[in-house]
Write a structure and sequence with these properties.
ten-stranded antiparallel beta sheet; Catalase_3; 482 residues; iron; hydrogen peroxide; Catalase HpII,  Chain A, domain 1; Catalase; single chain; Catalase_core; 10 strands; alpha+beta
């Protein structure tokens, strides 16, 4: 049976080829409401793209617990071997616009939404275990350097390296980014990380610090820079296409989820600040503990509805998972939800891709696109005398100590070089050569020599060979103060 074409309000459309005009050649009449509705909706078909992570691909899947970790967290999705939880993932580049190429050198976003029985839980990280900065107050400035120059509307390597050279905490992430891992072969062939430190709390109220690691079962594979550039021109959607096709033909990608667990008291004595997102915890000190397996097995039916409108926030917690004092995380707890309220709307969690599978009972009402009945005639305030939803005392955040004066203070630990140097020394000679070549190529367009020299001194402090090779590649000498 042929379906009838209708307007958005369900009325049948008699003619979808010709506008209503005053005679054959007359002007179009404003009474052609079907025309007006089509054009007005077309003008609004794009929600504002994400400021960061604009270009992405997504898929549905299942997370299965393979090792019960209830002694560490009461979060039900991690409790009970064999327990399955539906999930959705979105991979993305960070700096590029919605139409940018997939195979550029850039971190990849790795955002997972678990549809748990206690509400949604989001892990919103990257394919790297660290980040460029460690305080959210620097984030807008950092991203401005990754975007387009306001005068030329071109990417500006001088701004990029100027910011990094003034922010030595970025050195660890810069080393990862400029290494082979800076351009994954596909979205299936890279690890994912929660990056931040979080707090897990068990049913007895005992807490630990935790970091998330998603390890790809496909193996880590990266792209040669020349092939990546070729693909960027010939097939800018290469990664998006690869993920879709793999799932469509039944080659379901999978990751094992592991965690590192740190006792609360260790945070005061560990050799790096465990809440500094520019640092990693040594796996020798805190070994990986298996939690479960994530398998992607279903493609979205509609990209805009499910991938573009998907919203993630590191503050979307469930009982058993809480925030840590990580300053970057603390800023993201606000910024991500605020971005969704601006970009998609205050009722973004009512959209199917974001809607929890758990029952939602709150007193939020009204706003754009309230599509869930808007609470009907139910009680719309709390506390009340009419049987409205009650608080759940066992879901309260566990108490934590705060100390010191309220002030604008930095992290205590300022060793930005040890871990970057350790990473450099872990690379093979071939990997080091490619790393140096990538950095030299990226820094050559920088306009000011003082920026190059300042950055070279950071590389040298991480490892003298590292800095010397880059200096030689740029035809400069290592600064004496390095």
């Amino acid at each position: 049976m042929t379906k009838k074409l209708t307007t958005s309000w369900g009325a049948p459309v008699g003619d979808n080829q010709n506008s209503i005009t005053a005679g054959q050649r007359g002007p179009v009449l404003i009474q052609d409401v079907h025309l007006l509705e089509k054009l007005a909706h077309f003008n609004r078909e794009r929600v504002p793209e994400r400021v960061v992570h604009a270009k992405g691909a997504g898929a549905y899947g299942t997370f299965t617990v393979t090792n019960d970790v209830s002694k560490y967290t009461k979060a039900k999705l991690f409790n009970g071997v064999g327990k399955e939880t539906d999930m959705f993932i979105r991979f993305s580049t960070v700096a590029g616009e919605l139409g940018s190429a997939d195979t550029v050198r850039d971190p990849r976003g790795f955002a997972v939404k678990f549809y748990t029985e206690e509400g949604n839980y989001d892990i919103v990280g990257n394919n790297t275990p660290v980040f460029f900065i460690r305080d959210a107050i620097k984030f807008p400035d950092f991203i401005h350097t990754q975007k387009r120059d306001p005068r030329t509307h071109l990417k500006n390597p001088t701004a990029v390296w100027d910011f990094w050279s003034h922010s030595p905490e970025s050195l660890h992430q810069v080393t990862i980014l400029m290494s082979d891992r800076g351009i994954p072969a596909t979205l299936r062939h890279m690890h994912g990380y929660g990056s931040h430190t979080f707090k897990w709390v068990n049913a007895e109220g005992q807490a630990v610090w935790v970091k998330y690691h998603f390890r790809t079962e496909q193996g880590v594979k990266n792209l040669d820079v020349d092939l990546a550039a070729k693909l960027a021109g010939e097939n800018p959607d290469y990664h998006t296409e690869d993920l879709f096709n793999a799932i469509e033909k039944g080659d379901f990608p999978a990751w094992k989820l592991y965690v590192q667990i740190m006792p609360l008291e260790d945070a005061d004595t560990y050799r790096f600040d465990p809440f500094d997102v520019t640092k990693v915890w040594s796996q020798k000190d805190y070994p990986l503990i298996e939690v479960g397996r994530m398998v992607l097995n279903k493609n979205p039916e509609n990209y805009f509805a499910e991938v573009e409108q998907a919203t993630f926030s590191p503050g979307t917690f469930v009982p058993g998972v809480e925030a840590s004092p990580d300053k970057m995380l603390q800023g993201r707890l606000f910024a991500y939800g605020d971005a969704h309220r601006y970009r998609v709307g205050a009722n973004h969690n009512q959209l199917p891709v974001n809607r929890p599978k758990a029952e939602v009972n709150n007193h939020q009402r009204d706003g754009f696109m309230a599509g869930d009945g808007n609470g009907g005639r139910s009680v719309y305030y709390e506390p009340n005398s009419f049987g409205g939803p009650n608080e759940v005392p066992e879901a309260k955040v566990t108490p934590f100590d705060v100390t010191g004066q309220a002030a604008q203070v930095a992290y205590d630990h300022d060793d930005h070089y040890t871990q970057a140097g350790d990473l450099y020394r872990l690379l093979s000679e071939e990997e080091r050569t490619r790393l140096v070549a990538n950095i030299v190529g990226a820094m050559k367009p920088v306009e000011l020599e003082e920026i190059k020299l300042r950055q070279i001194s950071h590389f040298y402090k991480a490892d003298p060979e590292y800095g010397t090779r880059i200096a030689e590649g740029l035809g400069l000498a290592v600064p004496q103060q390095a």
